[in-house]
Amino acid sequence: MIKLLLLILGFAVLIFGEVLKVYFIMPFPGSQEDEVIQWAYLIHTQIGWIRLVGALLLLYPLYGYLRQSPVWARATIAVVLGFYAVVFYMFNYRFLADKIFLQPENVGFLDASHSKVSGKQLALGITVGGESKAYPIEIIGYHHQVLDVVGGQQVMVTYCTVCRTGRVYSPTVDGQPETFRLVGMDHYNAMFEDATTGSWWRQVSGEAIAGPRKGTALAEIESAQMTINEWINLHPNTLVLQPDEKFAKAYDELKNYDEGTRKGRLERKDSVSWQDKSWVVGVQIGMNARAYDWIQLQQARVINDSLNQTPIVVTLSADSLSHFVFNRVLAPDTLQLMYKDGKIVDEGGSVWSPAGRCTDGPRAGKTLTPIASYQEYWHSWRTFHPQSTRYIP
Q: What is the DSSP letter of 90?
């Protein structure tokens, strides 16, 4: 009886150790709702010891059963050993995030006039040192991260399709360049592991949440999400990331992600407001955060609000995919913008583009100061901004 109990316990330790090492950091049913990241990191870092304990538990009963047991018992043990071998392979080589989502081999760019990517696609755009680049979301969404150099500065362009979060960071830690790999997810948000310490970093915030560097954060680089056409209008000399032909099939699987028409549990779009997969525009000023419902923004086109005592305006372009947020103070005035007869106008009759530039009227040529904003799923914004309020007109 003792041998049987040790045998069962040993196999349980080995099998469950391999499964839990991956289960807590991948989108399996029930794996992403609870605060389990520290347990996940413990299992991940101690898996060698867990395997050793399981093997030691098996030594005595295996020796006894293989010497004196009938053929059927030895065959059963062989089957279980084979099952463990399959589990080991699947959870160490097939189900790992960086084995599923590979890094691009060719990071190539073309100017706007020669780009092969449709201008209707969404992209993350950044400008550093006078150089502008656009990274189509249906490309970086598969890779999760793309390393590049913009304006002489190394950048790490990241995107999580399950949270719909795009962020750009400087991949420098403690003054040294760092290398990251996709390791899994936490609360459905992509998570990276650094090569130096093995710490785990959230994509949405750039913060290390487990490991020796816990509490450290990467420096975020200002970015904007909009259609490529809209980005080109603002930055005509931009370069546009081109698809790596090796991953054409993977990119095709993200087709229609921009428009939110994909099906499935993780990347769909809710058709009503304030559901988990509803789109919102998130804004944080200081410690105050607020979410603006995308459906309401599509209807209003312009939303005037005040956040942390800062008057702001949220606008939507004619393509209904590109959003902007600005400080609506134009000293000495605080503007009240409205959508009228297909145009954005202020109380003085000046006409404004959704991108914050006055195109006609007394204030022609003036521009508003942009404020960082993000379009993402409501479940993501509320999870990582628990203090956030909802905009209610």
A: I
